[in-house]
Amino acid sequence: MLAALVIVFREAVEAGLVIGIVLAATRGVPGRGRRVAEGIAAGIAGALAVAAFAGEIADAFLGSGQELLNAAVLAVAVTMLGWHNVWMAGHGREMAAEMRRIGGDIAAGRRPLTALTVVVGMAVLREGSETALFLYGVAAGGGGSAATMLLGAAIGLAAAAALSALLYFGLLSVPTRHLFTVTTGLVTLLAAGLASQAIAFLQQAGVVEMWSAAVWDTSWLLSDGGLPGRLLHTLIGYTAAPTGLQAVAYLSTIAAILGLMRLARGTPRLRPTVEEEAS
């Protein structure tokens, strides 16, 4: 549930910030509310289609070995989670500036009002599609039942909607860059945990046999079969007795994501980030 909450919260906040920037730039334009609503509805419909497509792909490959399928799904989820953090670190500011320019063009009459629907729809579609694929990866890694993941997703969506509204109306002065720092850290740990679980599936399938001995066993302190252990397993990939290769995959994933984010942030930019725009 916690993993679903973090993922949905992070993605929904990003979509909410984009919508807020465009709304602020088109304040006073007649009909903007209807166009935004149409864009949100279209984006959600597209994201649901992506989710259904992912499920059909998984069903088609069930006969090829569940462990291999799960490992493949987790590998894709890790790649997308890591790339998401890296992309936002380097390109968030351009996205915010572009949204503001589009909003200004619509308000000035240089672009049709339908552009508002397209911009909002694409933002919701992008974040919703990523959310669907991320959640599928979490589910493949044993992230909890459908009911608990749905509950976590609902809580994350509600929290993100409330936060976006407060930021838009100026009722909350907390810089969102701090929130993104926290959620970026959680997403990084989540990706590392999924990478470790992917290795576990490959070792169970006999595809990878190196470093398969457990390097430690902390089940005496915190069993991953109990509720606290299961929560940590879902959120950060905690395993009481990880193999050597699992530990290497976990640490390597963290190092790779943080290193790529540092490189992305080191690229000279002229405009503030999405987080800085909203703060």
User: Number of helical segments?
Assistant: 9
Gross geometry: elongated
Largest beta-sheet details: none
Number of domains: 1
- C-alpha termini separation: 29 Å
- The unreliable regions are 268-279
The radius of gyration is 20 Å
Strand content: under 5%
Mean pLDDT: 76
Helix content: over 70%
Number of DSSP E strands:
0
Order of helices and strands: HHHHHHHHH
How does the helix and strand content classify structurally?
Answer: mainly alpha
Structure notes:
With about 280 residues, the protein is an all-alpha fold. The protein has one domain (about 1-279). About 75% of the residues lie in helices and about 0% in strands. The protein is built from nine helices and no strands. The protein has helices spanning about 1-25, 30-60, 65-110, 115-140, 145-170, 175-205, 225-235, 245-265, 275-279. Helix 3 (about 65-110) runs antiparallel to helix 6 (about 175-205). The longest helix is centred in the first third of the chain and has 43 residues, at about 65-110.
